[in-house]
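Retry 2 of 3 after timeout on previous attempt. Resubmitting structure tokens to design endpoint.
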């Protein structure tokens, strides 16, 4: 130990030095001219060895050749900003022991007037370690958070308490067309179209978390609809708002398409029944409020079915499209044309006029204009069509009728126009209203009768020329409180209301069950039962499955079932009809053409059909003796049956003379009052 060190070590310490030596901080003093350490406390000597009298940057640091550049005092000296009495704060990782220190540095005059730097350093290595770990965890959390944000299908923007953007994900950048840097610091409303500013502000102010729709604004000023969800939370002690944005452009288009499908006819583009109902309800309210008349027109094309049957549905559709356009051209701008389906159109006439006669005159003009427009030739795909229409009109000026009632009354008036020769229009009148109300009542009673099982089947025998019963025809009867009601009264109503499907299924079930009941009767077990099938019933998509279900229910020989089909059924949707007929034949069921000769008799379609029987309509049999034409028609039908190998049965035979005449013409099967009236099964 040199003399100077001995003197220092042997000196008597004053109280202040005792305090400095007992502290856990590094304390050392540097001569600013020589950078010699002139004082060091015990903590400093323990950490770095005997440093007093040595150059600071060579002793305290490792292999430094000049004053430390990171020292703020050195910087102050070099920049000529040094002065006595200044304090500096700095942190440093010591190159000698690798530990971190936080320094408070003071420039002062030593006792011998030397300019010195008093360094007081605290070891902050553990704190730095914790800070690094915290920072790493924070960075990991931030990266995970960013990864999570970028993995969402929504655009995410996080706004600070001033509603300035502080964080965005990739989806948000793609949605708005900005880079991340461009979005940061933008205010929330800068991403919102002005049309939605008030809405978005209200949700932000109320801290509403519910999703809502708003129009957003891209960088290129284009607008897109979005679904927004906002949530306020605390992040690092500060309130932020997380906004999730989803572009719903495609969904909006889809909703528009759905709305269009729900409210417009896809073929013609006209409003459909659903949208028409809304227009009518509005018109009814306005008419009632103002006591003004408006009108509803029901338009049905005359004999349009022949277009589909002869040329095909594709051309028929083109005719309907053209018809829709002609109707639109014929009415006024404030009137509404709609298509109900098929060849049925409705026009709502907005007259807003209190004088009934004036309204009727105006409506007549519009109806006549529609008829004239529709009469013009349809030149479609090299075809020249001439089509007319029948129009029914119902006036209204209050809410006493529902839409359905108005439609029914206008529909009734339309049928009256058809009865008057077609290509005309008719107004609904109280007489027609009474007829319609009777029909509504009959429909309601029929529905109740079906539900209460008030129907029954009667059976009329079918015989050979030797008066032997070979089968029976099942005939429906309605047992009402007023007595038995004829099918001629209620079958048309059942067809129109759709009740024929339920009624027809019951008839099939009841008749086939009767076949099974007769299995044990030696005489009746061989009888075949003819069952009438209505057009709507045959065309219904559940018809074949209904037949199959009934056959599974009853164990019978299917050859005892004969289904009677009208000619009209057989020429509609020919391919589908043939497919059904062949399936029925494959089941073993025989088939009959009912009322042959009254409809669309044609050898061209007859030869395609897997039929077993032709039935001569009673209208030909009735005047067979007196009317030469009926005799010719009947003889022709019998001859056709023979040529095609079909059985021929004459119905409505009531006199012996008719019977003998039919036998002489070659007819072999008969049905009518001459042999038996329709009876209950137990009476046969």
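Retry 2 succeeded. Sequence:
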């Amino acid at each position: 130990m040199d003399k100077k060190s001995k003197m220092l070590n042997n000196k008597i310490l004053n109280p202040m030095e005792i305090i400095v030596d007992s502290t856990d901080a590094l304390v050392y003093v540097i001569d600013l001219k020589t950078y010699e350490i002139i004082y060091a406390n015990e903590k400093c000597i323990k950490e770095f060895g005997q440093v007093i009298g040595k150059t600071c940057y060579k002793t305290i640091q490792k292999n430094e050749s000049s004053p430390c550049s990171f020292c703020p005092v050195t910087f102050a000296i070099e920049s000529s900003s040094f002065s006595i009495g200044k304090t500096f704060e700095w942190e440093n990782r010591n190159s000698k022991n690798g530990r971190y220190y936080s320094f408070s540095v003071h420039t002062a005059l030593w006792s011998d007037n030397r300019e010195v730097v008093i360094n007081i350093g605290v070891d902050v290595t553990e704190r730095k370690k914790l800070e690094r770990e915290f920072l790493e965890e924070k960075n990991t959390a931030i990266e995970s958070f960013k990864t999570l944000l970028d993995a969402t299908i929504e655009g995410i923007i996080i706004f600070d308490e001033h509603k300035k953007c502080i964080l965005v994900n990739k989806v948000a950048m793609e949605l708005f067309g900005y880079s991340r840097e461009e979005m940061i610091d933008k205010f929330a409303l800068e991403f919102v179209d002005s049309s939605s500013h008030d809405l978005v502000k209200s949700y932000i102010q109320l801290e509403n978390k519910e999703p809502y729709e708003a129009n957003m604004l891209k960088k290129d000023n284009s607008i897109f609809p979005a679904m927004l969800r906002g949530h306020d939370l605390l992040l690092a002690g500060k309130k932020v708002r997380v906004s999730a944005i989803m572009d719903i452009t495609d969904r909006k288009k889809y909703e528009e398409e759905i709305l269009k499908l729900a409210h417009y006819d896809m073929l013609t583009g006209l409003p459909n029944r659903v949208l028409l109902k809304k227009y009518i309800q509005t018109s009814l309210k306005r008419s009632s409020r103002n006591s003004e008349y408006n009108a509803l027109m029901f338009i049905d094309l005359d004999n349009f079915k022949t277009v589909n049957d002869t040329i095909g549905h594709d051309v028929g559709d083109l005719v309907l499209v053209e018809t829709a356009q002609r109707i639109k051209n014929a009415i006024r701008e404030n009137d509404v044309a709609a298509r109900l389906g098929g060849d049925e159109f409705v026009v709502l006439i907005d007259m807003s006029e209190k004088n009934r006669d004036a309204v009727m005159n105006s409506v007549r003009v519009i109806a006549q204009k529609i008829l004239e427009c529709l009469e013009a030739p349809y030149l479609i795909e090299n075809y020249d069509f001439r089509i007319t229409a029948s129009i029914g009109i119902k006036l209204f000026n209050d809410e006493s009728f529902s839409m359905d009632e108005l439609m029914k009354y206008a529909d009734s008036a339309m049928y009256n126009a058809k009865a008057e020769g077609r290509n005309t229009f008719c107004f609904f009148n109280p007489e027609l209203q009474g007829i319609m109300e009777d029909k509504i009542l009959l429909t309601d009673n029929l529905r109740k009768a079906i539900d209460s099982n008030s129907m029954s089947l009667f059976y009329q025998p079918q015989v050979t020329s030797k008066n032997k019963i070979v089968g029976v025809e099942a005939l429906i009867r309605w047992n009402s409180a007023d007595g038995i009601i004829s099918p001629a009264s209620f079958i048309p109503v059942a067809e129109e209301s759709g009740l024929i499907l339920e009624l027809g299924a019951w008839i099939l079930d009841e008749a086939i069950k009767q076949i099974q009941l007769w299995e044990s009767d030696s005489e009746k077990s061989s009888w075949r039962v003819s069952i009438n099938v209505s057009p709507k019933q045959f065309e219904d998509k559940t018809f074949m499955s209904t037949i199959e279900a009934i056959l599974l229910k009853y164990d019978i020989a299917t050859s005892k079932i004969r289904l009677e089909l009208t000619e009209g059924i057989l020429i509609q949707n020919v391919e589908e009809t043939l497919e059904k007929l062949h399936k029925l034949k494959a089941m073993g069921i025989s088939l009959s053409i009912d009322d042959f000769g009254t409809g669309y008799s044609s050898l061209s379609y007859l030869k395609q059909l897997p039929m077993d029987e032709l039935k001569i309509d009673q209208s030909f049999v009735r005047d067979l003796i007196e009317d030469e034409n009926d005799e010719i028609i009947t003889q022709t039908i019998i001859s056709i049956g023979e040529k095609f190998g079909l059985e021929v049965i004459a119905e409505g035979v009531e006199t012996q003379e008719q019977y003998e005449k039919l036998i002489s013409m070659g007819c072999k099967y008969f049905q009518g009052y001459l042999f038996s009236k329709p009876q209950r099964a137990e009476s046969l």
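Attempt log closed. The chain has 26 helices and 27 strands.
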